Amino acid sequence: MFTTSVRTARRLCYARSLICHIPLPFSSKAISVSSTLSRALLCSSSVTATAAVTVTTCFYSTSGTNHLDLIRDNTNNSNRNTAYPVSDGKELVSPRYTDAYAAIELALDSVVKVFTVTSSPNYFLPWQNKSQRESMGSGFVISGRRILTNAHVVADQTFVLIRKHGSPTKYRAEVQAVGHECDLAILVVESEEFWEGMNYLELGDIPYLQEAVAVVGHPQGGDNISVTKGVVSRVEPTQYVHGATQLMAIQIDAAINPGNSGGPAIMGDKVVGVAFQNLSGAENIGYIIPVPVIKHFISGVEECGKYVGFCSLGLSCQPAENVQLREHFRMHPEMTGVLISKINPLADAYRVLKKDDIILAFDGVPIANDGTVPFRNRERIAFDHLVSMKKPNETAEVRVLRDGVENEFSITLQPLLMDDINAGYERLAELQVKKVNDVEVKNLKHLRQLVDGCGEGSLRFDLDDERVIVLNYQLAKVATSRILKRHRIPSAMSNDLIDKHEVEVGTDLASPS
User: Per residue, what are the HEC states of 312-327?
Assistant: First the structure.
């Protein structure tokens, strides 16, 4: 009996040494293991104990068939349904079937390499584009015979080719939709040959901190598919470099290099994000676009046939963390919220909210004095995330404190009027135009005359804070007509800005040219 106990202890210690990841507190419920694994761990039938362990790694057998049984982790409500192989043999050896290996098997028939030929505008010589250049990225197949990738992979594209794993052939692809804000794009391939043997990847959920993910793609340094593995370090709103917007992002410590952009981050058998950027000057800090942002982008394209954008309240707020500030605005000790410092006149909030209002809650969710709301397991996130996840023209209930009295208002949320012509200028909002082409602006009518007087070439707008916007006049004129039509805006300007003689001759400045 003593010998059996020692042998059992040794095998248990050896089995523990194979465990690759420490179970997280929120998912550490026991999984009942089959009698096969029980015999492998408990070597004597005289031991009357039930084997109940949390399986967090993979074992394989040295038997002739190398058969792998699967145990599914259904112990939480995250719908991950993760499968773990378990040996049916008597001897356990070092694991081969790791998460990274599973990610490769899952991605071989889904991840593609994207070849793009781009020709971006030349702002110094606005009558011509820059020379063509080639770039590469990654993408993966989603439901509906579509390929998801990053917007910056296909930005300013003139020609896009797709190559699937194990094939020497490149197939022509067309861009169906682009969301520069969220740095996502959808591609379609018409060739039936391309879709033979291709499988789509399913979207999962937001991973928890310290959960392992595998990033699959085609980074620089080689031509074949590559897999890097890391853990989730942080989940919070982050500035998207391509679109210059603040949206939720997941920080991981897996290497994300040029070429990885657009590739999936896989956990178990689901996609939990899309690789899109890293932090320059830092080591092993990469970012992936989380599933809520991906679903918001895809659902908008499916419902409207085009990219619809992310909503904004059109407010500038400051924290109400100072005690004297809260007392001045008559906030009770139990009240928390943020102070409105500026409202965009074009936003629907301008109709009902006022400067110096205190926003206490958004859609019934209390806002803390630092502007955050509860998020998952004792985490917090900026309340702007709740706003951005609303669909265009949806209403939101906002509770505010005005002059010491609580009020409830309903606000219609609207997206920014995005277009390729103004990509990169999204954050330049609520700034006064000082000059147009070095001429000081006297009033709004004078601004309109300066713009129309340009005729051709480039338009330079000098704004507050020494910010500058440069647009090609002809391209901007065409884009204006496109934006008006897309968002059903009847006119580019009010009638008082149109000269009388232009009205008399029936000139329609807002009509498509």
Answer: ECCEEEEECCCHHHHH
